[in-house]
Specification:
This is FAD dependent oxidoreductase. This protein has about 900 residues and is an alpha+beta fold. Helix content is about 20%, strand content about 20%. The chain has four domains: about 300 residues, FAD/NAD(P)-binding domain (3-Layer(bba) Sandwich); about 170 residues, no CATH class; about 100 residues, no CATH class; about 150 residues, Sandwich (Jelly Rolls), CATH 2.60.120.430. Helix 8 runs antiparallel to helix 9. The chain is globular and about 85 Å long.
Length: about 900
């Protein structure tokens, strides 16, 4: 039995007298022991802040890692494959791990190795790094404990903000009450406060400006934003569950949760239309009428993947031989925040008229708990369904979810995590609001430009790197037509809110942590300055820790230099002090400042390369994302590096330095960094200031200027459809022979395409004369983006699958079409009768690739293979057209 070392640190005692308020004076107050709050505290402590106070509404450090039970690491991802991986799951990280996130993950994976025999004991499909939440929390606690034991950091548990004191537009103090009570028992006066709470509690109480819900296009002119928005539409919450094999593998079914209805889970269920008929959902027009139905009679691949997609510990290989699994989003477990069920609306309205129309961000804790309880029951319904319906169809009853139980590690009465997983919260109205168009490129129609380059905007005050797709889970909720909001529901993707466009390699600006007006306050966790769309891409494990480190470093320099945080991004020497604290100037591993793909924190030149890149000294090609530190430094590159340094550090006589001969690029950066790193920071070229609210004098106000020190035009970008040709429009050519055969690939509920025979992805059927090597019907997608069904819907594979159709032997002319009307797709491959016709093809959203070939059929079946076994991307096949070649 493994041992968990957990240091118990109690909250500080309060005065015994009833009604008396304990008063604490501190340099830095951090509200929230979330992953950001934890990181901010450690970073600030390492940078010399002597008095730090954390107040948290729970009892655990770690936020989404622990309290929210998101126990399978999500981190920056992009097309490049860097870092380490394993043969069964190569990582797709955008960058090597660095900073506190890497320190934490190294500790977690070291613990896993000792406890389970592997740093990655779960081997999940989603990603390799997993952990038990309680075990991770013990590591969070152990890492911060030296600062707590020394008294540098004080922690108060189970207290919530109830009031603030603002003096002369500066936050001065925050009052806290014990969880569940209203009267304040703790008053904390602080020079600076970081709001790292789940819902931006201090931001709301202080009167600082903020936003919540979807942004209309008129707000930030983002290419993926809608002209109008649905009230309260946000990324959904999910009440995650950790399940583990029951003792002695005995059945441990849970009770039926309140309001359970198996029709809530058509994506998880084994039942078929025969059992329930056509479920008609009241979705908006054009969204589709019925759910995607799994194949009846056996557990579908989607059901079986629940065992593997986020497995935390694999019992077959771990030391204790017991499997544990994170149930998070599969099988309709997400809980949308718009169009709530009638029972929830009624309960909310009983607390306050109009409460059901409030955004969850602005609800009281009592009101949120009503939503939370319904979300819990919905998640428990997934487990109940898996134990009682899918169980009967599980190929291996020994691995049935009936033999799993909810983990006991949380210490809660219901054995669920203390909090739901939050993907979106309040957004601080900051000195700069990050926008979608900043991180994406107008030339994204080509694979190279869309996938491997630095972002359109590289903020001059960047503090860390990020990259991910703008990832909204299904935000819509639809009820059965005949039962309305009193009956079962499913979630669905609302038009325009399920963009899967990926950002380019970006940095996060210091300005987005600073309120646009109020002083004495910094945002952190999810309470920072970005749009709703950008928030969907900056919500991951590593990103939240990086945000915490950045806010802690910003606070440390603000306190040390007695300046407001808002002054720091505009004064280069102060900004470089923050960067020094993050990268090479304090204890712990340095943090990646500039988004080089191949630069590891272990490299000797890591700090030098990062600091010089952030100083704008390193020559950079927007498409050259690898630094190649160990390659010889070309003469042209060396000259450009020195020239840039002379511009950025004009008072230093660089010519007096003798350059090393035959140096690598990394060694040359080390040489120049050693030459300037002790130079007084005020000798660096200062940022310009041409006008009070327009630093570069380009007519764009600083609050709207992504590049405030570079004269530029406003960044206006409409999401343009690619220019289409006859080979890329996804439409079948006219003038084909009369005996042509046309097949489109889509689910049965997609409207019929004129002249096409529908294939819905079922195995080959001799009666029909066509079909697949396996059931791929679950891989049908309908985007509702184009009018023609044959190019608005498709079947896809992430691996390799084969479709066959009975035809007469002889020569056939075949045209296939791949692409996706709603999303870009890469690495698409198609072969016909062994002849490759489409190879590693990228298509932008709304762009297709048609390819024709003439083949000879000898066995009575025309064979088309899509994808590749290694699964480097999705191949989306829309249609195939074929006719005898004698018709040519």
């Amino acid at each position: 039995m493994k041992t968990i070392l957990r240091l118990i640190i109690f909250a500080f005692a309060f005065p015994a007298a009833q009604g008396e308020v304990a008063r604490v004076d501190t340099e830095l107050l951090i509200v929230g022991a979330t992953e950001s709050g934890w990181a901010a505290a450690i970073q600030a402590a390492r940078m010399g802040v002597k008095s730090i106070t954390i107040v948290h509404d729970g009892e655990w450090y770690g936020g989404q890692f622990t309290e929210q039970a998101l126990a399978c690491v999500d981190e920056d991802k992009g097309p490049g494959k860097v870092g380490w991986g394993v043969d069964w799951h190569p990582m797709k990280r955008s960058f090597h791990r660095s900073g506190l996130f890497r320190e934490l993950m190294d500790r977690i994976e070291s613990f896993n190795t000792e406890a389970y025999g592997s740093p990655m004991p779960g081997k999940p499909y989603h990603g390799p790094s997993t952990f038990r939440p309680a075990e991770a929390e013990a590591i969070f606690r152990d890492m911060i404990s030296p600062f707590v034991e020394s008294g540098q950091i004080r922690v108060f548990w189970k207290h919530v903000p109830v009031a603030t004191t603002v003096v002369d537009e500066k936050l001065a103090a925050v009052d806290f009450a014990p969880l569940g009570e209203q009267a304040a028992t703790l008053n904390v006066t602080a020079k600076l406060t970081i709001d790292a709470s789940d819902w931006g509690d201090v931001i709301q109480l202080s009167g600082a400006e903020y936003e919540c819900g979807a942004d209309p296009k008129s707000r930030y002119n983002e290419p993926s934003a809608s002209e109008t928005v649905v009230p309260n539409e946000m990324n959904p919450i999910t009440w995650a569950m950790i399940v583990e094999e029951s003792p002695d593998a005995q059945p441990t079914p849970i009770p039926k949760p309140p309001n359970f209805d198996d029709r809530n889970y058509p994506r998880a269920t084994h039942f078929s239309r025969k059992e329930f008929g056509e479920l008609q959902w009241d979705r908006p027009a054009g969204i589709g009428a019925i759910a995607h139905w799994p194949n009846g009679g056996m557990a579908s691949p989607r059901q079986l993947s629940v065992y593997t997609v986020r497995r935390i510990v694999d019992g077959f290989t771990s030391k204790d031989h017991r499997t544990s699994i994170l149930l998070n989003y599969m099988n309709g477990q997400d809980y949308p925040l718009m169009r709530l069920p009638a029972r929830v609306v009624e309960a909310l309205e009983s607390t306050e008229p109009g409460a059901s129309q409030k955004n969850i961000v602005e609800m009281t804790r009592q009101q949120r708990e009503i939503i939370f309880q319904d979300a819990k029951n919905h998640s428990l319904g997934v487990l109940y369904h898996l134990q009682n319906f899918v169980h009967n169809n599980a190929p291996d009853r020994a691995n049935s979810f009936r033999n799993f139980r909810l983990s006991r590690e949380f210490g809660t009465a219901d054995h669920l995590p203390p909090k739901p997983y939050l993907r979106e919260s309040l957004r601080l109205k900051a000195a700069y609001m990050m926008k979608e168009q900043d991180g994406r490129n107008r030339d994204g129609a080509t694979k190279d430009a869309a996938r491997e380059r630095f972002s359109h905007v590289m903020y001059p005050d960047g503090l860390f790197c990020w990259q991910f797709h703008y990832d909204f889970h299904r935000t819509g909720r639809t009820f059965l037509q005949e039962e309305g909001d009193t009956g079962p529901w499913i979630d669905y993707e609302t038009p325009g809110r399920h963009t899967r466009h990926i950002s380019d390699r970006c940095v996060f600006p210091a300005r987005s942590l600073i309120p646009v007006k109020l002083d004495g306050l910094l945002g952190s966790q999810g309470n920072v300055g970005f749009s709703s769309i950008v928030s969907a891409a900056i919500r991951l494990h590593d990103q939240r820790i990086h945000i915490g480190q950045a806010s802690g470093a910003l606070a440390a320099i603000s306190l040390a230099r007695d300046v407001t945080p808002r002054e720091i991004p505009w004064q280069r020497h102060l900004l470089e002090e923050v960067r020094r604290g993050l990268c090479g100037g304090s204890d712990g591993l340095p943090l990646l400042l500039f988004p080089w793909r191949d630069l590891s924190a272990d490299h000797a030149a890591f700090v030098a390369i990062n600091r010089l890149s952030a100083l704008n000294c390193v020559p950079i090609d927007v498409r050259d994302v690898d630094f190649r530190a160990d390659e010889p430094a070309a003469e042209e590159w060396s000259i450009a590096l020195q020239k840039n340094m002379e511009q950025q550090v004009p008072h230093l006589r660089l010519k007096k330095f003798a350059l090393p001969s035959n140096a690598t690029r990394g060694e040359l950066c080390e040489f120049w960094w050693a030459a300037i790193k002790h130079t007084p920071l005020k000798q660096f070229t200062p940022f310009p200031r041409h006008a009070v609210n327009d630093a570069d004098g380009d007519g764009i106000a600083d609050t709207d200027d992504a590049l405030p020190f570079s004269v530029n035009e406003p960044i206006v970008w409409e999401l343009e459809r690619p220019v289409l040709t006859a080979e890329t429009d996804g439409l079948v050519d006219v003038g084909l022979p009369s005996n042509v055969r046309r097949f489109d690939f889509a689910s049965a509920n997609v409207p019929k395409a004129n002249g096409f025979q529908r294939d819905i992805g079922l195995p080959f059927d001799k009666t029909k004369g066509h079909g697949w090597n396996r059931d791929v019907s679950q891989n049908a997608r309908h985007r509702h983006a184009l009018a023609e069904p044959e190019r608005d819907a498709f079947l896809f594979t992430r691996g390799e699958d084969t479709w066959e159709c009975e035809v007469a032997n002889g020569q056939w002319r075949v045209t296939v079409c791949v692409g996706d009307s709603g999303h870009e797709q890469s690495n698409q491959n198609v072969s016909v009768e062994g002849t490759e016709v489409i190879e590693n093809r990228f298509t932008a959203a709304g762009q297709f690739q048609e390819a024709s070939t003439t083949v000879t059929v000898k066995d009575g079946r025309l064979t088309i293979t899509i994808g590749r076994p290694e699964g480097n991307g999705n191949t989306a096949i829309c249609w195939v057209v074929m006719y005898p070649a004698t018709q040519l």
